Amino acid sequence: MTMSTRLRQVLDNRGDNYLMPFLWMHGESEPVLREEIRRLRACDIRAVCVEARPHPDFLGDGWWHDLDIVMDEARRHAMKVWLLDDVHFPTGIANFAFRDREPDKAKWFVAERHMDLLGPQSQGGVLIRPFLGKDGQLLSVLACPRVDGETTAVAVDRAVDLTGQVHDGVVTWDVPEGLWRIFILFCTQQGGGRPHYMNPISRESVRVLLDTVYEAHYQRYKDDFGRTFAGFFSDEPEFGNVPGYDFTETLGLPNRRLPWSAELETRLRERWQERFAANLPALWHDGGQRTGAIRFQYMDEVTRLVSSCFSEQLGRWCEDRGVEYIGHLIEDDNAHGRLGCSLGHYFRGLSGQHMAGIDVVLLQIMPGYDQVIHQWIASDRDGEFFHYALAKLGASHAHIDPRKQGRAMCEIFGAYGWAEDIALEKFLLDHMLVRGINYFVPHAFSPKAFPDPDCPPHFYAHNKNPQYRYFVPLMHYANRLSHLLSGGRHLAQAAVVYHGEAEWAGEAMLTQKPVKMLLQHQIDCDILPLDSLPELRPSGHPGWFQLNQETYGALIVPYAQRLPRAALERLLELHGQGQAVLLVDAAPEAVSDADPDDDDAALLDDVRQLPCVTLQTLPGILARKNLAPVTLAEPNTWLRVFAYRQQDALHLMVMNEHPAKRLDQDLRLDFDALAPDLDPAGWDVVLCYDGMANRLHATDAAIQPDGTVRIALHLEPGQSRFYVIQNKQGAAEAIPTADERLHRQLAARDNGLSLLDGAVWTLAKVKNEHDPAFEPVKTLAQGDWPNLNGADLLPCFSGIFRYETKFGLAEPLPAGQSLFLLLDMAKDGAEVFLNGRSCGIQIASPYLFDVTELLRQGTNTLAIEIANTLAWELQDGQSTHMLWKPTGLRAQPRFLLA
Predict the structure, then answer these.
(1) Does residue 498 contact residue 529 with C-beta atoms inside 8 Å?
(2) Secondary structure class of 802 (helix, strand, coil)
(3) Do residue 594 and residue 644 come from a single domain?
């Protein structure tokens, strides 16, 4: 047996490409465009996603001229080109086609206006024409009894249809005794958000986007489709029934326009029959017992139309022409299952795409900020969602949908501001990798003249960005680890039901609540929509069920006040087949798609017999079911573990997500609890893969006779490590390592060798574009390690700092031992030079450099270069929501002998 195939490929630099950053087009000159692409390609990036948002002539001669240059440069460098599929985000303006050519095909809404009437009154008249506005098309006029005088509740089951009594803009009615509310229900294109936009629940409307943007590029680059031209990227398509980004937009809110189309009206009329008109008021107001069912059925039909009219239509168009369709919708702060700026259902909204997709922008994820209340640029919620559900939504969709082929994409790094340093970028990347994301759209490369104020950071920025030197190795690292986490099978122990459908119909626990409990106890999971429950099947292993290639030992149902009948029946079937179905907190109280006259008492009684758990007891229950593969001596809620099965090896990524505390303890991994069909026969060695250096190290970890693996974990705050469990024969080229001895010193904060005691340090600086023409700053006094951007030194300087000193080595190192230099830094990246030669770059803690080979007896020259961010110079607005850490060394470097 030999080394695992994927590992062999990355060690030989033969891995695939998993990166396609945004390239913003502004109409730059040809040399500038070509240079930007070359700088992008130098990062081991072999694809680009072109964004037209800032371009002045999308689909005009200027656009084709510039895109021809990009295509030509891509062909030269064997790169792929993706296209963000509209003139600007959110996808759906179709290069202004709805405004200029086909306004009737733009978004339509259903709206209501109402007034109260007190009866009795014979031959009462109500003027309704002004309510319709200039384009309103009347659906119906209804009179509903008010339930009481204290609320806005109405009795829709006693609605009176007055539509036939409308004449010349007035409805005439003999008002019965009591308090009544008259509803005028109509269709309109007015009063929503973003006028002149595509209607995602109208097939004809979506076709305008295809005809305008997709077909135009197909006609020009037909011969490149499926070759250089890879496909299209939809960015944040939305219902847009309200302006802006209100992430809480649901049914039941007053004065809202709601998504509408001819297809939707047809479906609702078929579903509701004679109750079509009477049901509509319950979309805005409490309509009694029918309310939950009405709202569920409306959202069910709306999101199914999003899938068929929008996502599936675009996906099939691309498939027919040999390209792929990717992108993401707005997930932010739980909006993924709601109206407004999103598409109502994460999984249905992306059903036609060939990768799952998410994005993390605007400081949504920051180390340690996993609380519900989390202030980022657009909101003060929901850190719990961003840390525990966002990436899992994308990875889960990739795992369960065969069309996705295990591919989960994240648009990443965008609009964090110039203060986003390379250590934070690596944290974000590892956060996604350890949750199953394996394709990335870095945001963004901008060839515009520096400084471009548009959503920084920009990675090259005409050689003005000091962090670009670190971004290059980070992208190599991203490609390597993504390759190791692709082409195989993710190993999960549990599945958590998606809360979207439950939230439409009533009270619901958010999916991230149980996911958080699982991840904090190192139990991995996928999130499953209710649509996938019929596809679950026995895996052939007792207690485990299967979906696509994934297996799960438990199905966890977050509390839902109501669930649809088919889902409840399926949960009972799974339980009857011996699967562990666990209800969190309580059983559903009602059927969300039932008529109040339906007798569901027996069904609900049966569901109440399913096991019920609390969030706090959930991990322990799974452990007793042998579904907790990781054991730690002391519980640690910040350790993340991701297991991925390749045909010939097990890949294991671990990460310490605590923002300040080291993790030092043994991890015990149980193969039997990891997956039911995991056969470790032939695996007898645990190797550690260093994705930054692209090197393989031996470890002291071993596979035990009881079928477990014990690994000594030593992780700095934010640090990740990658292990490969495989056969011993393929480990011959693994480098012997001083890992254990070295990390024991790190954990103990060993002072190491005193080679630098009394050293005199000089400090110099240079702007990035002028490197290496350093200018002296000062000589540092003994023990003086200032914040280089502190108020008393260089508060507005952005560039590269260079520390330099000399030290002596009287005796050579003992045989078989290595010397490492450890830098005490809070952020940024560093490169160490010993005797004029580089010892490599480190971009995150621990800033540890092996200097053994370059060390010499006698006098040695040591230089340390640290590049900060452009935030100190530019002080951009998007860097305001981040705590800036001090720049430079915080203490004298230490030599550690191991």
Answers:
(1) yes
(2) strand
(3) no
